[in-house]
Amino acid sequence: MPASILKVTISASAICASLSGAALAQDTLAGAAAREPVIVVTANRTAQALDKVGQSITVIDAAEIEQRQTQTVADVLRTIPGVSIARSGGIGTSTSVFIRGAESDQTVALVDGIKLNDPSSPGGGFNFGNLLIGNIERIEVLRGPSSVLWGSQAIGGVVNMITRQPTEDLSVNLRGEYGYRDTGQLVGNLSGKAGPLSASIGAGYFRTDGISAFSEARGGVEKDGYENYGANGNFNLALTDWLSVDARGWYSEGRVNIDGFPPPSFAFGDVNEESRTREIVGYTGINAVLLDGRFRNRLGYAYTDTRRSSIALDGLPAETFAGHGRNERIEYQGIFDIADGWQLTGGLERETSRFSSSSFGAVPSIGRARIDSVYAQIVASPVAGLTLTGGVRHDDHNRFGGATTFGASGVYAISQTGTTLRASYAEGFKAPSLFQLQSDFGNQLLQPERSKGWDAGVTQDLVEGRLQASATYFRRTSDDLIIFISCPLPRTGICAGRPSGTYDNVSKARAEGVEIGLMMQPVDALRLQANYTYTDATNRSPGNANFGRQLVRRPQHSVTALIDYRWGFGLETGVTLTHVGANFDNANNSRKVEGYVLADLRASFPVTERVEIYGRVENLFDERYETVFRYGSPGRAGYVGVRLTY
Q: Is pLDDT at 52 greater than 60 in this prediction?
């Protein structure tokens, strides 16, 4: 372990220890009640108690999402250990999510377990800019390579957003808010059960005048507004006590003004152009529970369709870009309880991806690929407190051939001391995107990107769960990373017929760091959370001019603290403090993006049993900051809203 990381670990551990000591001195901790066990679904693709999962995973549940009042998923994610974001302006603009220093397109994004990644984007990743909280009631973030269960792209990790689920009784949730720069939002959801049919359906609308994507601090004056329509649905039909049918869907349509490089100077600045994105996600499947519940089977079909376009609005509207990506997946998964404490999971998948992409009305680039997969994983608890997990996956791609990945983890919970030890090793891979393979810049000889990573950590619960401290060290190496290369004369080999350049597997990277967490609840009304992440993500490509330099837009340091208090007369107040350190916006580290500190305040009050009013102030101190060079971020902003539940 490098000295810099060791120093960070020791310092953070000392802080946790001092805070722990102070908390233990409070008499109010003495009567604390044990916390309810946390159940997660992303780590093993089935419900599993968190204390039986050896990988690093964070859960943001419905209560916390409601308490934070956050508008976008990305703004929730950046408060999670090991996660950073980069956004090209205000809400709705292109947004990348980096997990433990991995590339943004090395993150698997899911909604209700269905992949969202867009085959028409250059790297095949997912743009989080169009993803609002809406009716999402739970977010799980799995950190570290996870390709055994989730396949291609799961090098950095997995983000699973779960929408409101069907309920036994009729449930109605409505909320509306208004605030900064004429921002308005309406969200509603209805759920319940009628005979054998359980259902949850919802919709939302969001609009804002926005800010200039070109930083207003640098001279941007044109407001780049955003508008979004969304819908979600989740249905389950119980045909018998052992057979049921699922259907799920998610829809988002957004349009946002963007900035660019207008003539005659072609310097970055305000332009009158609009980016449009429409996303449709669907799933239907049949579930069969056999052998008295020991053997659970699922056969499903998943569909993701993403259409993107850019429209120049000066004069007659003209389309400057059009992209269309579609994924179709047929999958089977079986889960068999072998014996008490022993569980086997296996699955088969076939995913077919298609894309088309064109600029300024040119003949579109088109492509298609198929990948067939088989995986198996076993979870064993041979002795009390110990859970071991191991799995293997093989993917066969019709362009580059096969890829096999392996993963294993272990967790040991010592109930007598409240100590939990975790460790994992996992491999990840990412298939070349259709654009990288088959566009006008494509190279059909590309191989998959590969990674190997491990982590180890400890979690300590004290005072019956009122105090929890954790520390995790992680390390990942990535090989055969795909980058765009130039093709000077004479053009031979992969550069033949590629005058503008092509893609090649020539890059390597390493990321390692430490994640520190602390949770305190000295009394029922007060909850404090804090986390710190140190990430050292560097270029490790031999012979490259940028060898040893920091990867683009990967801050080394980030700190988040959340404090929430519930007053005796019903008022709830809270504050979120976020610090993100400096990073670099280019590969040779010559262009620095300064770090920033944000403070957000929030409050809510129940007017009646079913009606609540709430409000918040974001960026309280009006920090002027950028997450992408030259692109602005919102200043101080206030919002008020009302919630109705039935």
A: yes
* CA 106-586-306 angle, 5° bins: 40
Nearest to 511 by CA among 458, 452, 459, 457: 452
SS (H, E, C) 49-86: EHHHCCCEEEEECHHHHHHHCCCEHHHHHCCCCCEEEE
Tell the residue number behind the tokens 């029922």, with chain if given: 524
* Separation between Cα atoms, residue 198 and residue 168, nearest integer Å: 7
DSSP for 265-320, written as a single string: T--SEEEEEEEEEEEEEEEEEEEEEETTTTEEEEEEEEEEEEEEEEEE-SSS-EEE
Taking the C-alpha atoms of residue 514 and residue 534, their distance in angstroms, rounded to an integer, is 5
CA 354 to CA 449: how far, in whole Å?
20
Spatial distance between the Cα atoms of 123 and 121, rounded to a whole number of angstroms: 6
Assign 26 a pLDDT band (cuts: 50, 70, 90). very low
| 101: phi then psi, degrees, rounded to nearest 5 | 80, 5
At 570-580, the pLDDT tens digits run: 999 999 999 99
Nearest to 555 by CA among 523, 577, 532: 532
CA angle, 235 then 241 then 245, to 5°:
30
Residue 361 is encoded by which pair of tokens? Answer: 């009305």
- Number of residues that this document lists for the chain: 646
Cα angle 216, 219, 225; round to 5: 45
Residues paired with residue 597 on neighbouring β-strands, in sequence order: 579
Q: Check if the beta carbon of residue 462 is closer than 8 Å to that of residue 30.
A: no
Rg (CA), the chain: 24
Reply yes or no on whether the pLDDT at 16 is more than 90: no
Cα 496 to Cα 122, 499, 500, 600, distances in angstroms: 21, 8, 11, 54
Instruction: Print burial letters for 513-528: b (CB count within 10 Å at least 16), e (below 16).
Output: bbbbbbbbbbeeeebb
Rounded Cα distance between 419 and 470, Å, is 10
Residues 236-250: b if buried by 16+ CB within 10 A, e if exposed: beeeeeeebebebbb
Q: How many CA atoms lie within 13 A of 540 on its CB side?
A: 15
Residue 29 has pLDDT above 50, yes or no: no
Peptide bond before 264: cis, by omega within 30 degrees of 0? yes
C-alpha distances (whole Å) from 388 to each of 10, 437, 455 are 29, 38, 15
- Residue 35 pLDDT class (50, 70, 90 cuts): low
Between CA 125 and CA 106 the distance in angstroms is 7
